[in-house]
Amino acid sequence: MSDVQDAAPSSGAEDAVDLILEQWARERPDLDCSPMGIIGRITQLQREVFLAQRATFARYGLDAPSFDVLAALRRAGQPYQLTPTALMRTALVTSGAITQRLDRLEEKGLITRERSEADGRAVVVTLTAAGRAALDAALPDHLETGRALLGGLAESDRELLAGLLRRLLVARGRVPQKP
């Protein structure tokens, strides 16, 4: 049995990546193109996730970067504050990118930036009541979007996939950073 046949689900359904793998197997049988089976599907799913989330967030006047910042602040618990550096680590972006995100959110009244009472040199970012309301309104819809995207998988398959992706990310060094 070929790698391509192994990759197809037992239902016999094939996707566009299966066709690409068949074509490469024919044209370059000397190469193991199996990584394309995973990376190609991740790339296609990444696009699907991006489009679905963009539509979801737009309904609430947000985008994915804004949602990420608001969610990080909400997850921090009361008083819903983090430093820009902590937000930068959470979002895995540069200081310039986090500054742009914070500028946009502050203009919308969803966050505030103030000097820390504990350390006057430090800045703290605080989720406003409007920011919390926006995040809390969008979150259930965001979760439903995720459920819909995963709708083709049984719960056991979702757990298996989550575990495999976690293992791959950890192997790539994507582990939480210390505060």
Automatic annotation (TrEMBL):
Where does the HTH marR-type domain start and stop, copy by copy?
35-170
Which GO molecular function entries does the Swiss-Prot or TrEMBL record give? Answer: DNA binding; DNA-binding transcription factor activity
Q: Name one GO biological process term.
A: response to stress
Key words, A-Z: DNA-binding
For the keyword DNA-binding, the answer is yes
Q: Which domain of life is it from?
A: Bacteria
Task: Reply yes or no: does the keyword Transcription apply.
Answer: no
The record ties this protein, via PROSITE patterns, to: HTH_MARR_2 (PS50995)
Name of the molecule in the record = DNA-binding MarR family transcriptional regulator
Supply the source organism for this entry: Blastococcus colisei
